[in-house]
Amino acid sequence: MPGAVARTSTFALTNSTLRYALELAGKGVKRAAEENPHLAEGVNTFDGKLTYRAVAEAIVGTIEPLTPTAPSSGDRTRPACRSDQWRLFHPGGLLLGDLAHRYVLIGGVAFRGGPPCHLRLTLRLEVLGLDGRRLPLPGNPSTTTVEGDLPEDRQVTRPNVNAFRPTPLNWSWGWQEWCNRDVPEGRMRVSAETGATITVPGPPSPSTPGEPDTGCRDRGRPSTVAPFP
Predict the structure, then answer these.
(1) Where does residue 47 fall: left (phi above 0), alpha (psi -120 to 50 degrees), or beta otherwise?
(2) Is the whole-model pTM more than 0.90?
(3) What is the pLDDT of residues 170-209, one digit of tens each?
(4) N or C: which end of the chain has fewer CB within 10 A?
(5) Could you give the strand order of the β-sheet that contains 197-201, starting from the edge strand earlier in sequence?
(6) Are 37 and 163 in contact (CB under 8 A)?
(7) How many angstroms separate the CA atoms of 216 and 203, rounded?
């Protein structure tokens, strides 16, 4: 806060942050972070563990997520979800980490309708070149498993609702060192054993005309793909 305008800057800061303070005070850190992804991004430590990857990598090289990454079983007594009850969902946007050297692909499951059900998916990510061929990257293709209940663990996809909330059915991968000079621009295709597929454009090549400079540079490290975190 600028000391030259201490009173004005205090009002500005309070107006911007008070709602988050009230949410933390009313719900506690864990529930507030689970329900508000913006708060979750600001949690560096929780329950004696580092939960923010950049801090963990810089200090001790280890990380434990705020919410479990292992599949949550949900209610397995429910009938299995039919393939017409759900679809894979990507919220859009470009999410970068590790000083822009890691592209993070996140997504979840949207609920189409029908009775409550249980869903377990093994998902497969392939990073493809613009010609449709799989890029020769370590970890490509990569698989992960998610499990949860619908409609409770769905992502909200209504118009003008863009909050991406943490649920057991979320999936994410990291493409590390995506901007290496010998790595072509690519697309990321996620598919389920049911046949459901979603294809998302990868990060733009640093040499693409008109694209902003992300700051990613070839650091001489291998380009890899793996579930994240």
Answers:
(1) left
(2) no
(3) 999 999 999 898 898 889 999 999 899 999 988 876 665 5
(4) N
(5) 142-150, 117-129, 186-192, 197-201
(6) yes
(7) 11
